[in-house]
Design a protein that fits this description.
Blueprint (H helix, E strand, L loop, with lengths): L1 H25 L15 H23 L13
Length: 77
């Protein structure tokens, strides 16, 4: 029974990942390098996460200044 539930969850997760990949792929300006993050090593994931955290910090600072946070900034590679 546990195996059946886990198998169903794995399929659902895989389907959701494919849907997210398609959304990333279809958005103009999106970084296709993000399509298979689940395949990367933990160290590489942490580096990418840190870049997005930096972007979020910049956006919050801009909001505090009364500016918009919708500008698209480039992610460091």
């Amino acid at each position: 029974m546990v195996f059946l539930i886990q198998n169903t969850q794995n399929r659902d997760t895989e389907a959701m990942q494919i849907k997210l990949d398609e959304l990333i792929r279809s958005i103009k300006g999106a970084h296709n390098v993000l399509l298979d993050l689940e395949e990367l090593e933990d160290k590489e994931l942490e580096r990418i996460k840190a870049n997005y955290e930096k972007l979020a910090k910049i956006a919050r600072e801009e909001l505090r200044k009364g500016k918009s946070d919708t500008e698209t900034l480039e992610v460091e590679q």
